[in-house]
Amino acid sequence: MAKNFDVVVIGGGPGGYIAAIRAAQLGFNTACIDEWKNKDGKPAPGGTCTNVGCIPSKALLQSSENYEEAGKHFADHGIKIAGLEIDVAKMLARKDQVVKQNNDGILFLFKKNKVTFFHGRGSFAKAGDGGYEISVKGAADETITAKHVIVATGSNPRALPGVPFDEQKILSNDGALRIPAVPKKLVLIGSGVIGLEMGSVWRRVGAEVTVLEALPTFLGAVDEQIAKEAHKAFIKQGLKIELGVKVGEIKTAGKGVSVAYTTAKGEAQTLDADNVIVSIGRVPNTIGLNPEAVGLKLDERGAIVVDGDCKTNLPNVWAIGDVVRGPMLAHKAEEEGVAVAERIAGQHGHVNFNTIPWVIYTSPEIAWVGRTEQQLKADGVAYKAGTFPFMANGRARALGDTTGMVKFLADAKTDEILGVHIVGPMASELISEAVVAMEFKASAEDIARICHAHPSLSEATKEAALAVDKRTLNF
Ligand code: FAD
Ligand code: NAI
Fold it and tell me: pTM here?
């Protein structure tokens, strides 16, 4: 096996494995090092996203949504079910199978693209003539050399100070995805993306879920009108969300855990629960990378310092994904991976940060791209807004899922689309049209004049674009 590579990628999450594939496609002799193991100790590339993030959470969201549909909504369609039960062990096994298919898929893609895969921990050993020595500690310890290094070591969950994760009662996203039986009572700390997604999973299968959020506003980064609509829907579903709280002591007691907190009104409270999930953000991960050996610069948050092109302070060392600035999203990591591989090849890889979509996979889903109404106001931009409710969309009525709306924000003068915000069914899929439109600098009028299939949820997108010019046809 060759030990000298043009490109070595450290980390095989969505940023790293995609960067390795693109580098190999461009003709570079490429290696990717990843240390993730499955429960049998076998390689499990794909990083946080594949193993304990995007993929398993969506598998559980789907299972729990099916269960809730069957229990609460099938009867509306005349479908009667007796003795409906949730088999949590089966639900978790299916999720594990979905994860494994993705791990195996990545190993296959490495073979197909002739990327050399090393299973183990990669760390900087030293900078040498014309490149870097990287030590790989795995089944066998070895040193490989790289002309270019792409660091894609991802992120780890942030713990509350003095409250380490035990993954039995005090859970990170990892433990949250493998609770063996439906907890009676579950507390989530942080009403961000993980809090809402994991809270939805366990509420749907029967847990009483309380979410404790430090900020006084719900989903502060989301367009206010959309966040309000989502908040209403979650409360109606039975999710208890307490805003503006200060979390105090967390004690594991007997079989459960107790969480002390102060409410927004200053009252001291304690919640007893079976488990607590702490989802208060993530921190960049450089554990074991040994950045000091080569003088790789980190910032005060522990993120690798990069410029707009993902270049670090060292020649030919690049960093991408969760370990650098910007949103911690799999598709952002992937786009940076492709762009860096292309830059190494002398091409002009580019990531447009203004058109990175966000999706929260709750029900209703929340998705957006571009600026919110509150951001436009803060930036002093003159804009026009148009909304269209799913209640007025025929396909949504046929689906029995009419919560929410599509909202367009367009420049008051030029009509260029500045932001699109959706809360409602299949928002994750609908948002792509808005991303494409914004990439092509389309106007709201462009979308309003495009023929959309009937009956489809996407007609709500067209109608919201028409609403910008106050000429909806179905509302
Ligand atoms: P990671 O995926 O974290 O991968 C880094 C890899 O590097 C890991 O395999 C790690 O083991 C390995 N590694 C680290 N150090 C070393 C080393 N020294 N040597 C060898 N290997 C090393 N994002 C979305 O876009 N959509 C979603 O739906 C979504 N859902 C999520 C749900 C949850 C519960 C969580 C926690 C996250 C979710 N995310 C989602 C975020 C997404 O998972 C991350 O943004 C994404 O995984 C970042 O990719 P990455 O390649 O930068 O890092
Ligand atoms: P988050 O940043 O989305 O939300 C954290 C929340 O915790 C915030 O609302 C914050 O105000 C609150 N918080 C912080 N400290 C607190 C404290 N001491 N007490 C109470 N509340 C506190 O972080 P989260 O949910 O952990 O997710 C991490 C990241 O993973 C996300 O930001 C996102 O980048 C990624 N992710 C993406 C998903 C998607 O794209 N669908 C799904 C899940 C995660």
Answer: 0.97
